[in-house]
Please model this.
Amino acid sequence: MPDYKAPNRDQTFVLNELLNVQQYSDIPGFADASEDIVNAILEEGGKFCEGVLHPLNKVGDHEGCSLKDGVVTTPTGFKDAYDQMTEAGWTALSAPAEFGGQALPHYLNLAFNEMVTSCNMAFGMYPGLTNGAAQALLVGGSQEQKDLYLPKMFSGEWSGTMNLTEPHCGTDLGLLRTKAVPNGDGSYKISGQKIWISAGEHEMSGNIVHLVLARVEGAPQGVKGISLFVVPKYLPDADGNPGERNTLQCGGLEEKMGIHGNATCVMNYDEAKGWLVGEENKGLKIMFVMMNEARLGVGLQGLGLAETAYQYSLAFAKDRIQGRSLTGPKNPDGPADPIIVHPDVRRMLMDQKVFVEGARAFTYWTALQGDLEHKATDDAVREKAGDYMALLTPIVKGYLTDKGYDSVSTGLQVHGGSGFTREWGIEQLLRDARITLIYEGTNGVQALDLVGRKLAMAGMRPINTFFGELDEFIAENQGDADLKIYVDGLADVKAKLQKATNWLVEKGLENFDNAGAASTDYMHLFGLTCFAYMWAKMAKVAAGKKDDSDPIYATKLVTAKYFVERWLPQADTHLARIETGAETMMTLKAEAF
Model:
């Protein structure tokens, strides 16, 4: 298995040069993220991921987790790596200072987590889910709950999960049957079964804090009757330490296609003691905080696995010799040329490179919007950033995992037959990547959320604001000869997205099936437009430094041109599919299939 090298130079290019995050130094937490601090954190984080987490990736895949007498044991080395991560404070990078965190911007935490995911996705899910659960408690929990749980969760001393899915219901949470019965002392008895609970049971943390959706007796049916409860594995004693064992247990481990190093559990709650988070029947709103956090994290997984696949593919293509270049030998002293000389191999590598670097820019830019939404002092800035977070979350999750999986698959193709064997590591990446299209809401659900809810939000204010930002960038740069191809490409795909949006507004209201039939292509067209914006902005930065000796700038311009020439033509296909409507798709009766 090849080595992984943290992409620190590209990360700092995006944060310090493209996004210029130092311009926000007047926002709380941002002043502590100077360029030197950003660079140092990414460098040290990269060393940890390269040296500790990446070597455990194959171990986790081969060993998996084991369950014996209700106790789950993680693969060899995971516990030690988890201890190293928590002791170094990596889990608390962006956590609030009042709960023991370092209060650094979320975008910096996201950049670190990209490397964690690239090196060991299954491992990264343990602290990742804990952070999501902590964010839900931060938003919806009582002060007592925050004081009790958050310092230990942000430090990693305790971990966390989210419990939504049940054997008979997944996306349609209104069907859930887990029940909550008041004990009369402010606590509840929680009974039911949850499935596919990532990190549901393990030995790495001192306690596991489960956030569980359940229905209080007498609550309305459907989603209006869902409440959220905090149900710890061990009941905290008077001093806040793990005490009596709660009546919940892991009833089984799922046998999965990938992410073997993560304990995906069936969780059984037998009148387990839990406490209401927020108000009765308002739990889904709070849980959505964690779900949205998770969706952004899953999008990041699409990027992270694609980065590793690209590194593996590039190393293989430079080393593997086979055939001769069509324009004459490039390795005349050897029996054949390395396969990187062949145009079709170059096509695959360039497709991987375009995706990884475009996805990194888009994901970090979106994470910055999250920081601005919560921390900016200007009301207008917070409103715009909040609009963008709502609008873009399904795109980050859906588009990046769809294309990320394609990118990993392309990497396996670069390897040829070698890629299909376990020795080279990339087949594991492909198996691990497949789940990203499914969990935290399948990508079809993300697309429906985009066209069914997000477009119409606030009288279409979010998308109209986004269109306005693109128009402003195009107007400012259309006279720059160095940027013409990139700006023209952005203008063209933006026009197609606007046309598709107008079609959806008209035809989707005429027949809701039209919106459903168009949703996935619309999500991909939107994602393509976001990438076009990122690549145009990166090209602008690179063009301004084209005489710089750092090769990253000249490389960015070539890659951006490849994106315009080889990726943007996909927009025509997506638009044509959108405009066909739902008629043919919905004509056949079920029995005719």
